[in-house]
Structure formats: structure tokens, C-alpha cells
Amino acid sequence: MSSRFDEIRLFSGNGNPALAHAICRRMNIPLGDATVTSFSNENIFVRLNESVREKDVFVVQSLAAPLSDRIMELLIMLDACKRASAGRVTAVVPFYAYGRTDKRDQPRVPITARLLADMIQVAGAQQMITMDLHAGQIQGFFSIPVDELSTMSLLVPYFAERGWHDAVVVSPDMGFAKRARNFAELLGVPLAIVEKRHGRPLTGGAGTTPESLRLIGDVAGARCIIVDDEVHTGTSIIEAAEVLMASGARSVVAAVVHPVLAGDAIERIRRSPISELVTTDTLPIAPERAWPELRVLSVASLLAEVIERIHSGVSVDTIFQRAARPWR
To answer: Are 187 and 144 found together in one domain?
Structure first.
């Protein structure tokens, strides 16, 4: 099926240029020529160095650190494309920041995930592609089409090909239990959950008792695969790994979609019982921060296929079906 737009153009901000280049290589197209820089007063400047009039434009930007700069780059690039009379503008945001602020969980706080959605739309995005949102309901914050892709089609085969018949998939908290269960079902292995119990108030207003962790499930002698959508400080997966090893697990690896890895997270993970961290390139990891037990699976081919299907007007349902197919 041919596209209703003249040609496809793909531009990249500074959030993850290596991923954008990888997508272009798989699509056999050049990366669009754009200048994205900052002045000495920290104002961000964007200029498209080629025409996008009536073109099908895709702007790739992972919302990595420094976060505020990357958000502004995305918004300004979308605005530049809109004002340059692009036929259609699609924001490709592999990692959607502020995903954890998706509701008012205490008085007088914002819903920043909704605010960010509003800004992306006002800036000029007519649809969006993203991956493994922290909460699926964030899709509802947009009034434009949103294609949320799953990395299960990458992560599940990686472990299935090892033939670990004694594996157990582990959710590091109750909040991720549903997606962890789906992961376990695709692998055909059991599920365990590490439940965090918050401390109880002490009498006399003297604070609370310490938080406690409780394992739901049997991991004795098993190779445990902790799965989560992102690793920020590493605290959740490290605590879960310690509970698993204390419960008789044979070994512990972690499979995490988005490698935020803030602060000293890498050093803490390397000192922990986690023997391997498997993640993706939705966020960049500088070469000097890599370590031998880190495995990075690229999402470039998945994003390239979705972009080509959207450009050609072909359904992306088969990609979702592929991610949901049990591995045998």
C-alpha cells in the first residue's frame, strides 16, 4: 500500500541519536538534516536544514538526562516541523518521562504525565509512538493516536533461547505483577512476587516500623528473572534479588526495559546478587558506563517496522500479536 504523503523523513534530537541512526539503517534511509543546539543562555535552537513540506515526518527523541532539555528539544522540533508545513508529524518517544506521575496520589500535586502529553500535542504531534509506558492509562492522556509498543518480542526470546526450564519470573512489586505474569506465561514458567509491606505507625507518633519484603511463590533452586519497566536507582530490583537469594534461588538476573540508571545505580547493581542486567536502548548508555554483565537489546528494528507500517498505512496489529504469542 502506498503512502498518502510524498516521502518519509526522520529527524533526531540529542536524546538518543545512536538509536535514530540505527532505525534509519534498518529503513535504508538517511537521517534528516537538522541543527539542534543550545546558546550560551541555555535557549535551545532548532533548524531543519531540508524541506519537509507535505512529507511524513518522524521525530525521534528519548527523554533522557538532562530531562528538561530533552523535553524542550522535542517540543521545539515538533513546532519547527509543523511550521514548515510537514504533511504529518509523529513523535517517536521510546522512553516517556514522568510516567510515574500519572495520578493525584496526594493533595495539591500535579499530574505531570498528562501535562507532558498536552505539550506534545500543542507543539504539533499528530500521533505518537512509544514503548512500555509505566502505566497503560497514559495513552488516554492523548487525544491523538498513540501506538505503545512492547519489548516482550525482544526480551522473551532472549531468555527462551537459553532453555532455562527451572526459571521463575519475578515481579519486584505488586504494581508490575500483571505484566510480569504475562512475561511468565510467554516463557511458560511460574511467577513469583516480592511484596513490599509499608511500616505501621508507632504509638505516640514516634514514626513507623521499617518496611518489610515478603516473597509470594517458590524460588528454591530456580534461576530467577526479575522483570520491570525501568531501573532508576536500582533499589527495587536489588532488594528483590536479596530476598530471592535468601529464599534459596540458584541465581538472579534482571530484565528491565528502560535503563535510567541514575546516580550510583550501576555500582550498586554490580555489587548486588544480580548476575546480569538485560535491557534495551530506549535510553542511551554511555560506553564508559557499560560493564561485562550488561546486555543491551536494540529496539531499532521494532521501531523501524512500525514507522514503515504507519507511513504505508498498514496495520500494526500483527506486531502486537507477535509480542503476545507464547514462546515454544
So the answer is: no
163 and 30 fall within a common domain:
no
C-alpha cell at 269: 547493581
The neighbour count for residue 204, using CB atoms within 10 Å, is 6
Which has the closest alpha carbon to 214: 181, 182, 247, 191?
247
| Per-residue cell: 10 | 526522520
| Residues labelled as active-site residues | 196
Q: Per the structure block, which three cell numbers stand in for 250?
A: 540458584
Q: Which amino acid makes up residue 77?
A: M
pLDDT tens for the chain, 328 residues long, are: 556 777 999 999 999 999 999 999 999 999 999 999 999 999 999 999 999 999 999 999 999 999 999 999 999 999 999 999 999 999 999 999 999 889 888 899 999 999 999 999 999 999 999 999 998 889 999 999 999 999 998 999 999 999 888 999 999 988 888 999 999 999 999 999 999 876 445 455 544 444 678 999 999 999 999 999 999 999 999 999 999 999 999 999 999 999 999 999 999 999 999 999 999 999 999 999 999 999 999 999 999 999 999 999 988 877 766 655 554 4
- What distance in Å separates the CA atoms of residue 250 and residue 225, rounded to the nearest whole number? 11
Query: Is the same domain home to 163 and 291?
Result: yes
Q: How far apart are CA 96 and CA 57, in angstroms?
A: 19
Dist CA 190 CA 18 (whole Å): 36
259: enclosing H helix or E strand? strand 251-259
For the beta carbon of residue 60, count every other beta carbon within 10 angstroms.
Answer: 28
Domains contained in the chain, number: 2
Q: Which three cell numbers stand for residue 226?
A: 526479575
Task: Say if residues 70 and 13 touch (Cβ distance below 8 Å).
Answer: yes
